[in-house]
Automatic annotation (TrEMBL):
PANTHER family: NADH-QUINONE OXIDOREDUCTASE SUBUNIT G, RESPIRATORY NITRATE REDUCTASE. Gene3D superfamilies: 2.40.40.20, 3.40.50.740, ADC-like domains, Dimethylsulfoxide Reductase, domain 2. The keyword Iron-sulfur applies. Coiled coil: none annotated. Keywords: 4Fe-4S, Iron, Iron-sulfur, Metal-binding. This is Molybdopterin oxidoreductase family protein.
Amino acid sequence: MTDGARPATAPGGSPREAATHCPYCALQCGMTLRETGGRVEVLPRDFPTNRGGLCQKGWTAAELLDHPDRLTTPLVRDAGTGQLRPASWAEAMERVAGGVRAVQDRHGRDAVAVFGGGGLTNEKAYALGKFARVALRTRHVDYNGRWCMSSAAAAGNRAFGVDRGLPFPLADLGRARTLLMVGANPAETMPPLMRHVADQQAAGGTLIVVDPRATATARQADLHLQPVPGTDLALANALLHIALTEGYVDRAYVAERTTGFDEVRRTVAGYWPAEVERLTGVPVADLEATARALATAGGAIILTARGAEQHAKGVDTVTAFINLALALGLPGRPGSGYGCLTGQGNGQGGREHGQKADQLPGYRSITDPAARAHVAGVWGVSADELPGPGVPAYQLLDSLGTPAGPKALLVFGSNPVVSAPRATRVEGRLRDLDLLVVADLVRSETAELADVVLPTAQWAEEDGTMTNLEGRVLRRRAVRTPPPGVRTDLAIIADLADRLGAKAGFGDDPAEVFGELRRASAGGVADYAGVSYDRIDATGGVFWPCPDPAAPDTPRLFADAFPTPDGRARFRAVDHRPAAEEVCAEYPLRLTTGRVLAQYQSGAQTRRVPALRRAAPRAFVELHPDLAARLGVGDGEDVRVTSRRGELRAPARLTPTIRPDTVFAPFHWGGAARANSVTNDAVDPVSGMPEFKICAVRVERAQP
């Protein structure tokens, strides 16, 4: 069976197969699905990102297809009992359409909002943004990718003129002589990526990891820098300070390919390594060794991830590491550069085609008159009819149900009751709505609050495209049809648009939607005009930008120039500033959050898979043994972590791999163990990224 073969059932009940990709992270590992007698199994498939490997989540992904918790009929909230009850599609859809009409008649078009997800296919993300702006004509649309990639995206745009997580193929990691990972733990979050890291180390390369915890990735590093959470920006400026004083700066590259270096040079002059050691806790010798390894290896890659980015200064932190990469002359050279490890499955494509508050398809700005005219022409509407920009995700959720905010919300592919910062407050906002509609495959924590729940197809039951962390557009292929009573998101969107009298057409055929997406993106930064299903099938994936079907795609950016008006990258001076919330006598510890190997995102799906539940059955709070001794807490005893916003309760897990002034909690669980009940809702002023990675807390033994 070739990579491009479509699912087909042979006579006599022979197995049906589909070459597709994992439904979880942005690595988008290749896999083959085989259906035999109604049972779907996952088989390995050689693909450049994972080379046949999968993590435990990938191997068990098909177990959700026929899970007993799977929704197969719409649910509506009964006015009499207040409970969700089964309903027909006709009743559910009219409840949604009628509710939308009633809210907009009373409060205006912006009184209805749409909230999407970074796991939606390109086709669904595109259709959702179009639906918001054409069928609802609301400016209020955003998505949970705002909490994943927005800071790195904003920093990349202002430095390079483009946002593509990795501007080079993933295989370049194996070629880097030095690899610096900042706030990244791929050994747990995307294990198959570590095959490329293993190649890098086997060839004699140096791996350096910056993380407050000695994670599974950090334990494999040649050098682990363990800073105080929230001090990565100062660390980056110190590395550039050392590069300047030691003569490591590639002055020819800086002069020929960049602008703005003088201001950055003056700024980092004040970041003396000894001062930064006192601020970050990272020894001067380790700072010097890192700068030397990056500058003298003959090829280096700097990668950032959520640990550095999920801060109220995340954009500036990423900018500081981009400044370092530019000063060393790394971007645009094979085996060198700056990149960002995208998190969600379609975290890249999901932000390119219109479900983000300020964007139109092709990564166009919604405030650009030419962009509005182009997209409106594809949609067959007047540019004047398109609403203006909305607000970032947390600001949107925090305004729900308030006098000036939306009174209705439609949610696709997200579970903000668990995933949003200050989640208790967000949960209250959702309860204040006149209408909450959730499209999902299980009764997630958010779906439990909904007035209408619409059962949706899973990844193995629909075709479409995803764009992975390299900017490679991939084909997702169905191995079977959805169960009776279940519809695809595209079909739901098209039906609602029709019921609301949308002038523009909405289809439920992914290939037709992708064809329209290609036209809408043509000429944009993320140009997919030259990408087609047939071309992906023939090549295994197409890197954007790809404006011409007959011309090569773009696996590697920046070789000759940057996509800025003058072709040069932009340095930007940035200064360290404290976290939005500092420790104090009442809240003397720092909490940081993250993932564990066997769970994913809000856990609504992975917590239902038996093997994953056995591997990671419950939440925990990671404490250093010295801190636990001071608190009188034993391993496995319940602790209460309290911030100014709320509290979480979970068993203590004692480990010397974390700083004694820091505690860690994974964010995959709801209820009393919900980490985001505690996290800070302060946001980056540029990206809207909340400060998930640091807040001030106190920890104490929980009373029985």
